[in-house]
């Protein structure tokens, strides 16, 4: 019953949010009759500088973007944004006095502190000033209010039917958590500043908080008008990226760079390479997993799953199942949750060893004192997902090792069975089909990423079972070649870009 109640609550919540955001959109559109000054002109009027070769226009992929009017050379300065044109929390506190009351309320209320994010003060400023259009950043925020539909693909603005396409994924859990934070933050703001209740609603908060979360630059954290119009694009690499190689790759392919002068506070936005006339000017938002891309910016990157180790899936292990195993009882001295989460990533080879070692611990029939004395295992405390037993332990038998592998495989099968959609090939077909709606394509990409991780893990465990079955007296070394056994997929497909 609990999952059904959660699903019903989610449907009610999304209906309410969709309604409020629709009302907010109507209000924003009603104010567009009064011409809003060009945001690049606003920068120059406030002491900044914008290259005469730069303009704002509709992006071919998402909302608006920055484009060149003519050729731009490498290292050319595109925008110089002075300190007074960057919107920070400190400035918001100075201009909107009521924020001090909210700040004090959060600092002195333990429950409120636990419910909000670090951006609550700036998000509140944006919500109030976006509605009024007043203040030093009135032009910028009126512009953002009119064009906030660029945020439309954030998952909390999807319909219930669209969200159902994420059923069974870890990403849906992340979306629910993010949505709960937004709802709780709005509640905290309204309790601290009750006079806002008659002026602002949930839709205003969703737009403001989403804008702040997706447009924030730093450190120090701030909104950077004009610069934040640059969309994200990360070309597909021709090789797999480790974390170190990923950071180098992002630096090498970045079309632009953003540097802040710590003395003056001036931000300089420069071209890292030459741009042709009419070319869109992009900015890198970093190399992260698709859960982050979707919940922060509303897009996904199609090659994250097989060219990085960033895609992840959690295997949920019911503790009740573990307690039926013989070895659990002697050393269960730590109170643990109803489930233990084990993380798999898209490279698989490293953490699959750890997960097998976790299962080995619970599958052993050895006497606890013998394991403690002969295998260096001490009293287990802390995070249960990190409890492991090495295969070198002489008290681990081949039969128990096979039991451990079977247990891991059962977790993978159970995790996969919870997800909607088809198999990997069917998900790929849906992603590649040009007639697939954008949000469905994003959902299919998320599912494909998680299914890919599970497919990798299942392949490795199946291979381990086969190797163990055919191993001789030195069977304890059967896992030694598992790290070279990652599934080789067909060549990665070309990406047309990921933009916000």
In short:
The protein has helices spanning 2-30, 39-45, 89-95, 98-107, 110-115, 120-132, 138-146, 160-163, 170-192, 202-215, 243-253, 290-297, 304-307, 319-323, 349-363, 368-374, 398-417, 424-432, 438-469; strands spanning 49-50, 54-58, 64-68, 77-81, 87-88, 216-217, 222-223, 256-260, 267-271, 280-281, 312-318, 339-345. By secondary structure, it is α+β, with helices and mostly antiparallel strands.
Detail the topology: elements first, then pairings.
Layout: H1 2-30, H2 39-45, E1 49-50, E2 54-58, E3 64-68, E4 77-81, E5 87-88, H3 89-95, H4 98-107, H5 110-115, H6 120-132, H7 138-146, H8 160-163, H9 170-192, H10 202-215, E6 216-217, E7 222-223, H11 243-253, E8 256-260, E9 267-271, E10 280-281, H12 290-297, H13 304-307, E11 312-318, H14 319-323, E12 339-345, H15 349-363, H16 368-374, H17 398-417, H18 424-432, H19 438-469
Antiparallel strand pairs: 1-4, 2-3, 3-10, 4-9, 5-7, 6-7, 8-9, 11-12
